[in-house]
Amino acid sequence: MNSGRLQDALALAQKGVSQFPNQPELLHLLGYLYLQGGVYAQAIEHISSALNIRPNEHEALNNLATAQLKLGQASQALHTSTRANQLKPNHYPYLKTQALCLLSAEQPEKAIALLDNATCRAQNDVQRLKLLGDAHRQLSATSETAIDCYLKAIAAMPNYAAARNNLALIYKAQGQPEKALSQLLAVDQTRQPNVEVMYNLGTTYFELGQAGKAIDVLKQTVTLAPNYAEAHESLNHLIWQMGQEELFGNSYRNVFASGKPVTPELVRSFVKACISVKRYDEASTYLSKLPADHHTELLQAELNSAKGDYLAAIQSLKKLQVDRPPYSPAAMDLLSVYMRAGDGDAAQVLLDKLLKQSPNNQYLWAIQSVLWRNAGDQRYHWLCDFDNFVREFTIEPPSSYATLEQFMAELDALVSGLHKTQVEPIGQTLQHGSQLPGRFFSRPEPVIQTLKMQIEQAIERYLAGLPADQSHPFLARNSGKVQFSGSWSIKLNDAGFHISHVHPEGWISASFYVTVPSDLKDGAGDICFGRSPFLFSGADTVEKQVRPCSGLLVLFPSYIWHETIPFSASADDYRLTTPFDVVPG
Questions:
Q1: pLDDT value at position 538?
Q2: Does the pLDDT of residue 183 top 60, yes or no?
Q3: CATH class entry, domain 291-358
Q4: Which of 39, 161, 169, 532 is 20 to 30 A away from residue 187, measured at CA?
């Protein structure tokens, strides 16, 4: 085993277990070898068998926790690791395993406390610094403390790929893709390429507007890791946005045709990709190749819903009992299918249950608005007070600019040049346009940061003007302070528009208009509020319509349905906006 002859060691251990099936040391050894070989289910099986015979072996418990982590069994791994640490307290290798378990269970504060105890601090270990960085990054995607931890780890071990990779992710979250690129390129990839680093390198090139390099690196990534589903997804989404629709999905098909082992996760990823671009026949073909399990039934429901076979989709979802507690994300899928099918009664019954579990969920309140309006319930007007909740502001010109027009012209020159793709992203609401990746207001350019400050001043005025009502799902959350939860930029070209949608990740949402086409007529390009995409009632109509102009900011609750009207424009004319979401601060 120590000489690296893992397969020989496995064969010997298997022979030993076959001769002495109740020997815990041999069972543990065989499980450990499977763990080293990446066969995690077998590792769990054999180490668990050893522990059934001798339950207080702390080393076996630690190895079992590691195997459980590898299979994504976070809660089980944490329980197992806790037992190991109880049996052998303050043993640094076990404490590191427990820190990993806490991070996997999304308990970063406990991980930080553990890694900062006297035993851990006494260790001159770069992995501890990296884990501390991971914990702080889990608390905040832009954490400066995490940056400090990663930089210390890198100073001690310059080619620490995991530390550089995660540092790059923070820089990306801060809107500094150039710094992220520098960290990723500093990883030595000559001896053993790190596919996670390569994946993030590809997506970083995309954020920097270097689509050709991004595609090349992502292609290399899926060549080295054929079952890396996330890399396939990013590659094909980018190919689509570059207007190369005929190449969409080829990376998956190449793997399927290669004869190499294919994971169910990769097949599921391809099926979802086909559904997203309405290639339903191909989706159905590959769906039939998957094992009959929970994941396959959910995908079948998604396919049926996309094709408009709502009854079949409902049957699949109810078969999985997604309408019973505890409610999974699939319950939201069932709710959406009920709405598309026009079954308001069934939707309301499920919605009442989901709102008790998630009272601040913006999508649920968006559905409630449609159902109340459809039923003629006056609470609709209380929930969606368009006069008081949908407000327009013209931002003040910054002191460093003579006019608002000068400020908008500089902003337009910068932001329009950042849009490099040709086609809208898959699964987004815009049509005939492009969307910038990343967090727009995290970008370091001074003109963007100045815009952010001017918008924050307008948000303060908006909050101050809202009425007070502690029983209201929107007004009750007004603390007078906000933080940005998302920001991006949209560039719409001729015939461009947004379909009706809401913003589930926000509390207040907005559209800020940098540039609008020069000759808009008869409502073209207007933003409209109130009409949902379900349209199963004649009462579902536009409640308020706003005419855009450069420098205009429109603020509204994130659960209010909104859409835009298509416009005509010349080849060099466009509508440029910077939408965003904020949540209570």
A1: 65
A2: yes
A3: mainly alpha
A4: 39
Location of structure tokens 């461009």: 496
Report the alpha-carbon distance of residue 344 to residue 338 in Å, rounded. Answer: 7
Q: How far is CA 338 from the centre of its chain?
A: 25
Q: What is the pLDDT of residues 53-108, one digit of tens each?
A: 999 999 999 999 999 999 999 999 999 999 999 999 999 999 999 999 999 999 99
Q: What is the DSSP letter of 123?
A: S
Distance CA 509, CA 502 (A): 9
C-alpha 298/C-alpha 140 separation (Å) is: 32
d(Cα 103, Cα 98) in Å, to the nearest integer? 9
Angle at 360 between CA 344 and CA 342, to 5 degrees: 10
Cβ-Cβ contacts under 8 Å for 554 (sequence gap 6 or more): 390, 391, 392, 393, 510, 511, 512, 527, 546, 548
Which residue, among 458, 474, 542, has the nearest Cα to 508 in the 3D structure? Answer: 474
Return d(Cα 115, Cα 440) in angstroms, integer. 34
CA distances for 284 relative to 259, 290, 401, angstroms: 21, 10, 57
Cα angle 88-92-93, degrees, rounded to a multiple of 5? 90
Q: Which CATH superfamily is domain 387-584 in?
A: q2cbj1_9rhob like domain (2.60.120.620)
Residue 323: the pLDDT is 85
Are the C-beta atoms of 146 and 133 separated by less than 8 Å? yes
Identify the pLDDT of residue 536.
Answer: 67
**Domain 193-284 identical in fold to domain 291-358:** yes
Q: Are 64 and 51 in contact (CB under 8 A)?
A: yes
CA-nearest of 282, 259, 261 to 270 is 282
**Whether residue 1 has pLDDT greater than 60:** no
**Domain chopping of the chain, boundaries:** 193-284, 291-358, 387-584
Q: What is the pLDDT confidence band of residue 338, given thresholds at 50, 70 and 90?
A: very high
Phi, psi of 503 (to 5 degrees): -120, 90
Which residues lie closer than 8 Å to 52 by C-beta, 6 or more apart? none
| The residue to which tokens 């064969």 are assigned | 11
Q: Which of 309, 236, 247, 227 is nearest to 273 (CA)?
A: 236
Q: Name the DSSP letter for residue 447.
A: H
> Are 283 and 303 contacting, i.e. CB atoms less than 8 angstroms apart?
yes
Which DSSP helix (H) or strand (E) runs through 39?
A: none
**Alpha carbon distance 291, 523 (integer Å):** 51
Rg (CA), the chain: 27
Q: Is the pLDDT of residue 3 over 50?
A: no
Backbone angles phi, psi at 203, to 5 degrees: -70, -30
CA angle 425, 428, 432 (to 5 degrees): 65
Residue 486 — pLDDT band, cuts 50, 70, 90? Answer: very high
486 and 437 Cβ atoms separated by less than 8 Å: no
Pick among 2.60.40.350, 3.40.50.300, 1.25.40.10, 3.50.50.60: CATH of 193-284 = 1.25.40.10
How far, rounded to the nearest angstrom, does the alpha carbon of residue 218 sit from its chain's CA centroid?
19
What burial class does residue 536 get, using C-beta atoms within 10 Å of its C-beta: 0-12 exposed, 13-18 middle, 19+ buried? middle
What distance in Å separates the CA atoms of residue 437 and residue 178, rounded to the nearest whole number?
14
